[in-house]
Each structure stands twice: as structure tokens, then as C-alpha cells.
């Protein structure tokens, strides 16, 4: 995997995690206002990741974009069974 594709994949994963954390904070903030600044920081991280990935995508070749899509799909595919089993253990 080329370095730019690896970096883009990491940013996409960071953005996905930040979105999950933001949603958790949003749900918690519906009953508590204590975590509002934390939620704002996470939202800023999401925006920064989106700007970074947009910048990287502009610099990537068509082949690198395809490589990124495949790498992301494989990551999600391999990660999905683990996530599903962890959720079922918690329920």
C-alpha cells in the first residue's frame, strides 16, 4: 500500500471513530450539558479529518483512489465480524 493511501485510510478510520464518539456525546448531552465542550472538540476533529481526506484525495491518482476504496472495504469487511461478536457479547 502506498504511503498516501495508508495515510488516507488512517484518516478515514479516525473520522469514523470521531463520528461514533460525537454521537455518543450527543446522546449523553440530551440529558446532561456537562460534556458539551468535549462534543465540540470531537466535532472539530471530524471536520479536520474531512478536510485532510479531501486534500489527500485531490493529490491522489485514480489508481490510488481505487486502492484506497479497496483497502477501506477490506478493513470494514474484516472488522465487521469482530464488531458484531463484541456487540452480541455486551447484550
Mean pLDDT across all residues, rounded? 81
Strand residue percentage: under 5%
Q: What structural class do you assign from the helix and strand content?
A: mainly alpha
**Tally of contiguous helical segments:** 3
Oligomer category: single chain
Helical content band: over 70%
Radius of gyration: 16 Å
Query: For the terminal residues, how far apart are their CA atoms?
Result: 37 Å
Characterization of this structure:
This protein is mostly helical and 91 residues long. Helices cover 88% and strands 0% of the residues. It has three helices and no strands. It has helices at 3-29, 36-59, 62-90. Helix 1 (3-29) runs antiparallel to helix 2 (36-59) and helix 1 runs parallel beside helix 3 (62-90). The protein is flat. The N and C termini lie far apart (37 Å). The model has no long low-confidence stretch (mean pLDDT 81).
Question: Short summary of the structure?
Answer:
The protein has 91 residues and is mainly alpha-helical.
What keyword list fits this structure?
91 residues, mainly alpha, 0% strand, flat
Question: How are the elements arranged and paired?
Answer:
Blueprint: H1 3-29, H2 36-59, H3 62-90
Amino acid at each position: 500500500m502506498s504511503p498516501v493511501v495508508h495515510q488516507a485510510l488512517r484518516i478515514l478510520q479516525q473520522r469514523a471513530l470521531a463520528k461514533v464518539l460525537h454521537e455518543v456525546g450527543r446522546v449523553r448531552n440530551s440529558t446532561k450539558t456537562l460534556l458539551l465542550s468535549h462534543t465540540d472538540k470531537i466535532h472539530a476533529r471530524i471536520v479536520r479529518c474531512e478536510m485532510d481526506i479531501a486534500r489527500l484525495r485531490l493529490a491522489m491518482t485514480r489508481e490510488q483512489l481505487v486502492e484506497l476504496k479497496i483497502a477501506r472495504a477490506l478493513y470494514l469487511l474484516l472488522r465487521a465480524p469482530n464488531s458484531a461478536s463484541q456487540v452480541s457479547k455486551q447484550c
